[in-house]
Amino acid sequence: MLFDGFWQATFNPKNINAVAIKKPANQLKAIFVENGNRTAVKTMQINAISIDKLPEAATQLIGFAEKNQTKILLFFGEMGAGKTTFIKAFCAALGVKDAVSSPTFSIVNEYHYPKGIVYHFDFYRLKNQLEALDLGFEEYLYSGNYCLIEWPEKIPGLLPQNYLEVLLEVQPDQHRKLTIAKI
């Protein structure tokens, strides 16, 4: 503890130092310091997500995205963690009527919902970032529509400055823990 109510931590993999203060229930407000620059970051965590709780968790994520005024969501997690399954629930909560499926081979799928378009990317099969540029990734990214991106670690040089990072982790009981951070 640095001082009353504040904690210090080191955030890897980027070796960023952080000072954080606890907030109500499932939120944490953090101040990250990298190269002397301070950035306020909000995070939210949802524990013990089972298949029947996906709609509720998706609705919470939509609310968090709206509150933080971002439609770019990067999904991280091991193979089989449930990224595509969660994205299906997210799209259903938005009101998408189209069949939502993994764009593993097409790289991007487009879905329509009452307020606009959702672009769903799966960069797992990309060999390099130029492939994303060739399909017009930046035009999608800055379209103002939802961009849901699986395997964003394949395109680190193309990521925008602001987005939501969504980490899905498989728990020992096979439920999922969802950690969302506004970057």
Structural class: alpha/beta
Uncertain runs are 1-36
Distance between the termini: 24 Å
Looking at the structure, what is the overall shape? globular
| Main sheet: strand order | 1-2-3-4-10-9-5-8-7-6
Structural domain tally: 1
CATH class: Alpha Beta
Task: Provide the residue-averaged pLDDT.
Answer: 81
Sheet with the most strands, sense and barrel status = 10 strands, mixed
Overall radius of gyration: 17 Å
Full CATH superfamily name: P-loop containing nucleotide triphosphate hydrolases
Element order: H for helix, E for strand: EEEEHEHEEHHEEE
Helix content: 10-25%
Tally of helical runs: 4
As a percent range, the share of strand residues is 35-45%
- Kindly identify the CATH topology: Rossmann fold
Instruction: Name the assembly state.
Output: single chain
CATH architectural arrangement: 3-Layer(aba) Sandwich
- Let me know the number of strands: 10
Protein described:
With about 180 residues, the chain is α/β, with parallel strands linked by helices. It has a single domain (about 40-180), classed as 3-Layer(aba) Sandwich (Rossmann fold), CATH 3.40.50.300. About 20% of the residues lie in helices and about 40% in strands. The protein is built from 4 helices and 10 strands. It has helices at about 55-65, 85-95, 130-135, 135-140; strands at about 5-10, 15-20, 25-35, 35-50, 70-75, 110-115, 115-120, 145-150, 165-170, 175-180. Strands 1-2-3-4-10-9-5-8-7-6 form a 10-stranded mixed sheet, covered by helices on one side. Strand 1 (about 5-10) and strand 2 form a beta hairpin. Helix 1 (about 55-65) packs across helix 2 (about 85-95). The longest helix has 14 residues, at about 55-65. It is globular and about 40 Å long. The two termini are about 25 Å apart. The model is unreliable at about 1-35 (pLDDT under 50).
